[in-house]
Amino acid sequence: MRHIMSPLDFSVEELDQLLNLANDIEANPKKYAHACEGKKLATLFYEPSTRTRLSFEAAMMNLGGNVLGFSSADSSSATKGETVADTIRMVACYADICAMRHPKEGAPLVASLHSPIPVINAGDGGHQHPTQTLTDLLTIRSLKGRLDNLTIGLCGDLKFGRTVHSLISALVRYTGIRFVLISPEELRIPSYIRDDVLRENNIEFEEVERLEDALPKLDVLYMTRVQKERFFNEEDYVRMKDFYILDKKKMELAPQDMIVMHPLPRVNEIAVEVDDDPRAAYFKQAQYAVYARMALILTLLEVKVC
Amino acid sequence: MLNVGQLNEGVVLDHIEAGKSMSIYHYLKLDQLDCCVAIIKNARSNKMGKKDIIKVECPVDMLDLDILGFIDHNITVNIIKNGEIVDKKKLHLPKQIVNVIKCKNPRCITSIEHGLDQVFVLSNEEKEIYRCRYCDEKYHASKAKHK
Q: Which UniProt keywords apply (chain B) (predicted)?
């Protein structure tokens, strides 16, 4: 039995198998419709989430399994002071696998240390969100046909965005990856990613402020939202929130085969008019999230479908 | 030089940075040991100018040398038997330290989960960097030495 806490828990080979499985699910959904019949997924969400929780639930339902759980700490025993260690031991009596989101970093790891069932980290504070990274890798590989030899632009809040940090850490394992890091000075990538991940792995990267300068050279543009909750004062947030707005005019600068990704929800950073552009991949990305999570559930439950 | 009685059996911690002996005394929980402990501060040293020394009259396995390695792996550990130095232990940075330092990240699960050990794992031996097992918060081992 294994758990997944970080996107790096899987080797590149294991990741390939998982993404192959996700693509097979996409191509043959009926083949997997009963794969998890009689199995239950517990979704333990100690903080609100829309996409992650719904896509986990949709993934398990698509596999013929059932779902139980809670969607905020208020409706769990955490309000009564129950530890994560006790909660998971109780939940393991009711479910076969668990997805946990928690505002405290490392909470899913604590759960995994006491759990007789596989635990999936569905996001722990600003730390890790491995299933988002799996989704991003699946989207890139499915739409670009490869995970190597790509120029990837990451735009927006690169300082606090855990999605971006995890994606960089996962992609540096492939050859020929080059990053263009597009952000205002205040939201630049933290030094532990620049030094410990990018420079440590001899990855080619550049840091720029203008999106227009980066667009012509990109294979993938990954937009992020500037998150209000990360700022201590409203004034800074207001100044930063509309720093980047991708619109039709800017898209004219981008190559015809570039794809635009976004972990969603978006606010103003991608104009609605871009949604009709064939290069807009963020809603497809939301669909790939379900396939990635289906593949992960099957893998962790060791369910083989012939 | 000040002469403190010779040990018959025990451990002499030599080459402690001057002024750091009391923090080592606490890290090693020597106050909880029922044995004779001598602390020498600011002894003359050719190598260091000034140094501290701790003499403990107890078997070496009663001391947590992992913690000592974490605090300062340049400390010399002399094992004494029958009044003679029979061994010098080389200290290394331990791979993992438990309940020695606390994670300072307020978003870490260790800040709220009762009964959870504070575990730090060595992530970069050359740079002496430890990371919290749960949240990856960074801790430089050199900080412990200068505490």
A: Metal-binding, Pyrimidine biosynthesis, Zinc
